[in-house]
Amino acid sequence: MERVRNFINGEWVESSSKECGDVWCPATGEKIGEVPFSTADDINKAVQAAKNAYWEWRCTPPLSRARYFFRLKNLFEDSFEDIARTLVTEEGKTLDESRGEVRRMIENVEHATGVTTMMTGYNLEDIAQGIDCTAERQPIGVFGVIAPFNFPAMVPWWFLPYAVVTGNTYIVKPSEQVPLTQTRIFEVIDECGFPEGVINMVHGARDAVNGLLYHPEIKGISFVGQSTTARYVYKACGETGKRVQALGGAKNFVLVMPDAELDRHMPSLITSFYGCAGERCLSGSVLVAVGDVYKELKERFVAAAKGLKVGNGLQEGIQMGPVVSEKHKEKVLGYIEKGIKEGAKLILDGRNIKVDGHPNGFYIGPTVFDEVNPEMTIAKEEIFGPVVSIVHVKNLDEGLKLMENSEYGNAACLYTTNGKTAREFKFRAVASMMGINLGIAAPMSFFPFGGSKGSFFGDIKGHGKEVFQFFTDTKVVIQRWT
Amino acid sequence: MTFTTFGAIMGFAAEMVGQAEEIYGILSQEAEEPELKEILTTLLEEGRRNRPLMERMRRENVTEMILEPITELPWEDYKIHHSVQGRMGDADILKLALALEERERKFFQDASSKLSLPEVASRLRKMVRKKEENLARLERLGMRPSFKGIFVD
Lengths: 482, 153
What we know:
The complex is a heterodimer of chains A (482) and B (153).
Chain A: E1 2-3, E2 6-8, E3 11-13, E4 20-25, E5 30-36, H1 40-58, H2 62-91, H3 95-112, H4 115-118, E6 122-128, E7 131-139, E8 142-146, H5 160-165, E9 169-173, H6 179-192, E10 199-201, H7 206-213, E11 218-224, H8 227-240, E12 243-247, E13 252-256, H9 262-274, E14 284-290, H10 294-306, H11 326-341, E15 345-348, E16 367-370, H12 377-380, E17 387-393, H13 396-405, E18 408-409, E19 411-415, H14 419-428, E20 433-436, E21 452-453, E22 456-458, H15 467-470, E23 472-480
Parallel strand pairs in A: 1-5, 8-9, 8-11, 9-10, 11-12, 13-14, 13-19, 14-17, 16-17, 19-20
Antiparallel strand pairs in A: 2-3, 4-5, 6-7, 7-23, 12-22, 15-16, 18-21
Chain B: H1 6-30, H2 34-60, H3 90-114, H4 118-142
């Protein structure tokens, strides 16, 4: 059984901690590994290594830094299937979802290699008589990421390549629930031959998180996870004067207008709600049927949801895997109980699903609640599982109002054939990632990823053009030689 | 049983091409008629190029946003009931090659209509055209007197 190690200063090292957690295969319910709960001392060692490596790395020309990432991209392509399968084994999603995630991880590496154009500053001659002014972008020091369980491969790479290619050094703290994927990825990093200390990884839980947040030598933190923790991270970074981008949870609304093409878009609606077993911050959660589409939409959606093939994601052709852990399964089941108790009508019940050969897996089948009232818990709180709440509204205004009242503002989608309706939705909806006629509004690496309201704390979001600013300081130089 | 995901379709495509490549490797050694031998060698080379291409397409085109469930593409339709059993004569070799090419043509055609990824669908359609050319070439060969009668059954 694998007990993962930290990667510090180019070496695989044991954590100084005796405490460790278990890693599970959600599809089978078997223990497959152990993860150390690293201490502040382990974090110190990683920070020291990253700090020592910083100056030489910072003085390496940007194009030379980018070349490491070109090489890394090719190595990732060679290890693609291996990384994807490791991910399925510990997280539970399907092979295709996992491959999609690894692909998006690599896309961030590809985007980061554009550093020689993305990191440039600007200048103006004669800002006063004979005086020229330049704004230059410079790296800052040691940065770190605290990653979530649901995208163990991709999320650290929304930040890492940009931080490192711009000349900073880096520490990754993977989720303690899914440490194997980044471990596999770091084996590839090790093979790639980055200078010692430039990229480090420390496994752990609360102590490791606090070790990063409160370390005085860390200049900035990227976080993705629940909103309560995102708020905590944001506050801690404020206290310690760090740059911060903290991406939190979501409650995403998917509106379907009476003129929507249900035939064409039913597969994408299903993917929106049940892809990754609903464990993604872009998943649809509330299906808002507008006007007289309600009855037909409900019937067709439930029929399609019933047809989904649920099982071990390692089997090609499976369309929905288990949720990540027994504990998370209990939490999702708790929400289903609450929905029933609060009066919603359970029209598709996934609680007792049986998957052949895997009686102990953490499976929940596609679940649908009808007649959901916006005041019910299941309509307000993030469930992070394959549970859909159908809310029937009269018109677009009423649908938009639902979204305004939500504490989250991550993603929202609309299905319509009417351009005016789409424009109005895009213009008025209070969410930062919008999908029109698609159910997963996932910005690719060259666009920013992040929400608003309770879904995001900070200024600059993940990847996109802007992330180059997060990892660099703008130095203004004013010169007179005349 | 039906293909239900993009990965399943592309995985089968790679497997199918790999299986044909293996068979063409044997048949190209066994065939005696020079043109048949040449065609089989060409098909073997084509398989060698196409298998990694299928795997690369699966790796590079798996886009999270449009990973949608796929329906109505049954496995059964693409089963092949032929295999290399002992030494085969040229007529049987030609028949088997025709069956293998027809299976690939049909699969690529059907799969291209099911995928919501235009780049992949377009590539598969290109492969359909290539398979049609191969089939036409094999059929022309089959019309020669030395292969007379192979299209009877």
